[in-house]
Amino acid sequence: SGAVLNLVRKEFRLLRPVWLLTILIAVGWSSVTVYQVLHQREHVKFMPFTAGAVGLAGTILLAVLAGCMSLGEERASGRHAWHLTLPVAARTQWLVKFLMALFAGTICAGVLPLLLLAAGQSLLGMSILPDHPHYPIEWFWGVLILTAAAFWCACAANGTVTAVLWTLPVLVAIGSAPELGYWLAGRGIHLLSSKTNVFGNFHLIVTMYHAVSFYRSGPATSLPQAALQAIANLVGSITFGESFLVVWIPTALLAAIQSYRMFKRHAVAGGRIVIRRLAPLFAFTLACSFVVSAVALYAWAAAMQVYQPIYNTNTAIERLLGERGSPNSGEAMQLAASDLHIVRFPGEETPRWLDHARITVISQGPTGKNFVIWPEKKSVPATYYHATVRLDDGTELSMATSQPVHGDYPHLNVRVRWPGAAQDEPLWQSGW
User: Fold this and answer.
1) Bond prior to 87 in cis (omega within 30° of 0)
2) Phi-psi domain of 345 (left: phi exceeds 0; alpha: psi -120 through 50; beta: other)
3) Fewer CB within a 10 Å sphere, N or C end of the chain?
4) Distance CA 361, CA 308 (A)
5) How many CB atoms lie within 10 A of CB 330?
């Protein structure tokens, strides 16, 4: 009876060096900080940097040792293999050891440093960290990641020192996998779009355009559109290079499964063993990142295939109307897709879905404002207009400018009517 409680007691004793080291680091960090406050002289101006370096190094060291010391010492001495023969499930032993490692890391490298920082700011009127409201949460996340990575290394390696030395390379490898997947997905989308017409279906790119929440002008009108919006909202952060849960949650689960399976095996010394066990985790993270990035980047590129042509069409119409001296209200003007090249920036191309489009523009009088043409920075009179863009597949775009509610530039409203549809639907509206 009391097997789990005995395992917890055993972990407390195995982590005794971590508790003692925590006290020493806390005393040293506090002494450096107090010395800085009491001696405000020229030769101690380097003390803020020293205090920050001591605190950061101590936190990293405690987090890593809390994760790998218990299992590392047991494996180095040979006791771990004997403990697996006890009448306690290996799953229970692994879970107790892992949770105790997280507990020790959270207390020693998370709670105690934040309490010291809070005390220093309250009693001494100083703080090493910047005034950021989210840094406690970010601090705790960093401590948990360090401790979990050190525990994984302790399961993969043989001994505490080896696990400590492998913690940083493992974190760098796993942390670089999402960025590498994002880069490969971006290169793949660019290569695919240059070799094939992946954005030729206007209905598909409009659906993807609505799925990207940054450009969405209204709620979803169908179940597929709602599903695409949900996917884009979930993985949309990858388009800005940020971390995303769609990759990290499966990676963490796989790392936990790997850790448990390695925990039951006999420890084998050697760096090749760690690399061999790290390779599946790296490949899995890279594959998840590549898939998620490819979906998100395709949605983003499809949205730009809608946004940029509309912007160029509006700019070309306003430029042509201004250069022709603001035609009379009601006068129609016929344009072609080739006329849009007058506002094409370097590197931009007219999308294929706009080829052979017929554009009819009806002027509705001057706005009394000037329109600045970029990149020439040429100023021409702005004109209200209504334009109809008819595509080859029968899709019809309606573009109209009107009096702005706020600002000086005309308000642009774009609607789309699909072939066979009874009425049009909003596509985009904006005030330039």
Assistant:
1) no
2) beta
3) N
4) 19
5) 10
